[in-house]
Amino acid sequence: MYIKKEDVRKILIIKFRGAGDVILSTVMLESLAEAFPGAEIHFLTEPFCEPVLRFNPLIKEIKFFHKDKTGNAELIRMFRKEKYNLIIDTYSNPRTALCTFLSGARYRLGFPYRGRKYAYNLFGPEERTLHHQGTLHLKLLEGAGISTKESLPRVWLDDDHIKYGEDFISGSAEKGNTVALIPGGGWASKRCDPEKFAEFGDFLAGERGYKVVILWGPSDFAEAEKIKALMKNEAVLAPETDFLNMGGILKACKFVVSNDSGPMHLAAALGVPVLALFGPTDPAFHAPLGSTAIVLRLEDLECIVCNLLECNRNHECFKNIDITMFSASVDKLIKGI
Q1: What are the DSSP calls for 148-212, one per residue?
Q2: How far apart are CA 105 and CA 115, in angstroms?
Q3: Labelling 311: which of 16, 109, 156, 277 has CA 20 to 30 A away?
Q4: Which residues on neighbouring strands pair with residue 61, listed in sequence order?
């Protein structure tokens, strides 16, 4: 089957779960807008991911899936009411496959997983692990014969969020000379140890003369406080913020040092240079996609990319990163800015 462009007037993208995953999926939007000029693009996601899509000019409407409240019948009714011509199910789990199948959409694009092929008449690649998670979304479009262009993930802020970040940095740190540390991560093994983050922060503040600000989410406050307490040099603990005000702070920073996390992808999508610390997860699939982004990890470590939620060794993937390695990575990042 091939898509007749004139048939496509309304498109739905389905993408659930992490904010970082949703950010990476935005690489599709430019290609879709060019392939189907004039078509409305709607986006179905979970409510906590809405901020990263809120100001995207290519998205006409954001729809919400409430994990514990939204039933299949409700989704199917919504799909049919909206009369989507093309549904792109990037999630392709049993529920989204069934709802896509019963949506009434003429074109249904998803991944050909076992037990779910019935739901789609257009397919992305069978093996998802061959591609970076951002690139995978473009491969999904290509599977449907949609021409793609190389795009980076994008998140837009409004003037209020930008001003919030600029005011915070000007008042608490130093405009043009502030580096953000982001110690959060989706699970324990992905988070570089506070002691090591403090060591990095002291190097940036003491040896390089940067002002250091530590950003945190709801589950990261204790670690952020510990990093500040461990540092010998002064650091600023950011206030509690929402995701877009955090983006405003990131936007006002010279660069960011971050674990593999949603805020890492947010920084890259805002065009902020990122030094990403990777241990159990594979940057081949999850590295930040930004114009200036580099990865620091111990390539030769026996257990690197273990994908374990809890480290069963000594967290060597982070603890064994020394200041010489970190300094070289900072220099490499700065040269690219």
Answers
A1: -----------HHHHHHHHHHHHHHS-TTSEEEEE---SSGGGSPPHHHHHHHHHIIIIIS--EE
A2: 20
A3: 16
A4: 42
What is residue 316's predicted lDDT score, i.e. its pLDDT? 93
| C-beta separation of 218 from 181 below 8 A | no
Nearest to 223 by CA among 181, 260, 281, 177: 181
Place of tokens 């000379």: 177
Spatial separation of the C-alpha atoms in residues 287 and 291, rounded to whole Å: 12
d(Cα 88, Cα 75) in Å, to the nearest integer?
14
Model pLDDT for residues 104-124, shown as the tens digit of each residue: 999 999 999 999 999 999 999
Q: Which residues of 72-87 are buried (b: 16+ CB within 10 A; e: fewer)?
A: eeebbebbeebebbbb
Q: Which domains does the chain have, with CATH numbers?
A: 5-143 (3.40.50.2000), 159-336 (3.40.50.2000)
pTM (2 d.p.): 0.95
Write the pLDDT tens digit of every residue in 206-241: 999 999 999 999 889 999 999 999 999 999 999 999
Q: What is the mean pLDDT of residues 151-165?
A: 97
